[in-house]
Amino acid sequence: MRKLLILPLLLLFLSCNLNSPDALLEGVWRAELQVTDTKVLPFNFEVTSRNALKIFNGEEVIMVTDITYSNDTIVIKMPVFQGYIEAAVNQGSLKGNFIEENLDRVVPFSAEIGKKTRFDLKTETVKQQVSGNWETVFSPNSEEDIYMAKGTFIQKGNNVIGTFRTTTGDYRHLEGVMDGNTMKLSTFDGAHAFLFTAEVNDSTMNGMFYSGNHWKEPFTAKRNENYELPSANELTFLNEGYDTLAFTFPDSDGNQVSLSDDRFKNKIVVVQIMGTWCPNCLDESRYYSEYYNNNKEKDIEFVALAFEYAKTEEKAFSSIERLKDNVGIEYPILLAQYGTSSKFKAQEKLPMLNHVLSYPTSIFIDKKGKVRKIHTGFNGPATGEKFTEFKTEFTGFVEDLMSEE
What we know:
Layout: H1 2-18, E1 27-34, E2 40-49, E3 52-57, E4 60-64, E5 66-70, E6 73-77, E7 84-90, E8 93-100, E9 105-113, E10 132-138, E11 147-156, E12 159-166, E13 169-170, E14 174-179, E15 182-188, E16 193-201, E17 204-211, E18 215-223, E19 248-250, E20 256-258, E21 268-274, H2 279-294, E22 300-307, H3 313-327, E23 333-337, H4 343-349, E24 361-365, E25 371-376, H5 385-403
Parallel strand pairs: 21-22, 22-23
Antiparallel strand pairs: 1-2, 1-9, 2-3, 3-4, 5-6, 6-7, 7-8, 8-9, 10-11, 10-18, 11-12, 12-13, 12-14, 14-15, 15-16, 16-17, 17-18, 19-20, 21-24, 24-25
């Protein structure tokens, strides 16, 4: 009788394994996202085991450990963000899609093992040098969409790394090449898939920015080592008649949390306007979480207000909990909005602000409950010295507020 029971179980186990695709081959892979009929966004990743891989963007390394196999399909879920890759496995190749369900976006995806280069070079000749600062204008011919940015790049031979900073944040760790007169840069982190191409002529650039396969816009740039963006502390402010902030939003336990609660009284409070889908918010959350965990004994509290495009409240709170678990966030994250990440809708929830210009935005409140500073955007690790400057400014300002009676 016992043998009769073991045999069906063994057959079931074998059949499950027969339906499971082979594990990804270990080694370096080159992936491509098809952003237009003729343009692909490349990036590299390294498979280190059956259920782990690393994605590379310049100096950034993203560890991915949520990998599942079913039938002939593999699903690679990115940490924190909701985007995932679903692809058929065929020995040393993958073919499928990068999917963001909450945004109804699907981008064709493919990958092959053994190719370590990110961009293929048409010429090995280095014809242009882009190291330095570039005053940049995106959508220069559109009155509605035009905005300024600062490009900062480091070029060694054909290889280029850097980023574009805007008043709302940075475009992450970009990596690529100078191919003749053409600069090519890309990044992929599971939330954003960015491709930049530009023709360079000594001190000018003319290029195109692709965000996945759903958006593209032109940009122009000129060398300007002294160019600086407007101060991040002057872009968002309180409307006339207000000197503080007020809100009541739920946490994941169903508790309604207000700024007037006892835990925030007589303490410095940093209010973080953010979204779990936002890479700049992730960078900021990592920094704030580390600071908070190292300074719990001091009179400072953090509280994040999440504006989520998840279609249901349940999915929005699931994203919040995933972020908290991944980063180790111990301060409360409240659900301020779901179903849209509209900044206009966000401003309706916080009418004391002149606008919500950026995710993230940080509001600094002193021990008496008064707003003392509002910082728009966040310069993350990809910005190098600007990230260092932010940390120095942040700690100095908070210490000044702590010293006040």
